[in-house]
Amino acid sequence: MNERKGFSIAGIPFVGLCVPVAIVGLVLLLSRGPYASLGILLEVLGIFLIKGFFQVAPNTGQVMQLFGKYAGTVRDEGLRWTNPFYAKRLVSLRVRNFESGKLKVNDSDGNPIEIAAVVVWQVVDTAEAVFCVEDYENYVHIQSESALRQMAQSYPYDAHDNGQPSLRSHGDDINTHLRDEIQARLGKAGVEVTEARISHLAYAQEIAQAMLQRQQASAIIAARTRIVEGAVGMVGMALEELRKQGVVELDEERKAAMVSNLLVVLCGERGTQPVLNTGTLYN
Fold first, then answer.
1. C-beta pairs of 224-232 under 8 Å, 24+ apart in sequence
2. What is the pLDDT of residues 145-184, one digit of tens each?
3. Residue 33 has pLDDT above 90, yes or no
4. Cys-Cys link to 71, which of 21, 62, 66, 139 (CB 3.0-4.6 A)?
5. Please, are residues 86 and 65 in contact by the beta-carbon 8 Å criterion?
6. What is the dihedral of CA 127, 133, 135, 138, to 10 degrees?
7. Which is it for the CA torsion 244, 247, 248, 253, positive or negative?
């Protein structure tokens, strides 16, 4: 079932017909003359016609049914008039958003994590929203959380290999995947997902401390690796400059001692204290 345009006409010009009919009927009814019965009919007709008036606010639609059958949707703004027998239901077409609850799920590595998301959505097909699902707003919330849970199980919290997508490091890719997952579930409800973004991401409380220690250890290892690479480069540059400028001639043993001292100075965590050697390496 897809949305189609329903029958309606501008309401303000039609007021010019309904009001005189009601007034004439009231006058004839109060006159108690031979046309009193006609006044009753005109009064009933006027009240019946007035029942056909309804309003359509901006970014809303009126879904109309005739004895249970879908008769179309009116999106034209302002005062409208339609068949008085139509039953009408207002559906908002405005952009809406909600934040899911914090879900506890396992990532692709099996680690328990907490995750939540903000979903921005709007109704684009009123017929599908009203007639294809029981309660489209509740349907959006439940299916969004289901899609979030499914997406979170497809990625690790942290990437172990360079270039591997993870929940923490590849935000744009993860958000796109989440939006597509939600849209796939909500297409039958006449809903379009404008945006979906992770709003909360953390390890579950029972493993948070252990994972924090692992992250700290990884950061320390990465920093040490960078420091050692830089120190080795600086030592090599120092030896090369000494050789080029002929400042001092170093044999292999002195070079080894110099390399050891420079690496201690460059890689040590604490400030170094100089030690004066008054002798030689061979004494």
1. 224/267, 227/266, 227/267, 228/267, 230/266, 231/262, 231/263, 231/266, 231/267, 232/263
2. 999 999 999 998 887 666 678 888 888 889 999 999 999 9
3. no
4. 66
5. yes
6. -120
7. negative
What 3-state class would DSSP assign to 113? strand
CB-based contact 82:145 (threshold 8 Å): no
* pTM of the predicted protein model: 0.68
The residue among 148, 92, 156, 150 whose CA lies nearest residue 119 is: 148
Cα–Cα dist 199/115, whole Å: 8
Q: Collapsing DSSP states into helix, strand and coil, what is residue 189?
A: helix
Under 8 Å between Cβ of 152 and 212: no
Contacts of 112 (CB under 8 A, 6+ apart): 104, 105, 106, 203, 204, 206, 207
Q: In 10 A of CB 113, how many CB atoms? A: 24
pLDDT digits (tens, 9 = 90+) for 211-265: 666 666 666 677 777 777 777 777 777 777 766 776 666 666 666 776 676 666 6
Cα torsion angle, 157, 159, 164, 170, sign: positive
CA distance 40 to 111: 76
How high is the pLDDT of residue 157? 85
Strand ranges (E), the chain? 9-10, 53-56, 60-66, 69-74, 78-81, 87-92, 96-99, 103-106, 112-123, 191-203
Q: Which of 230, 227, 217 is nearest to 269 (CA)?
A: 227
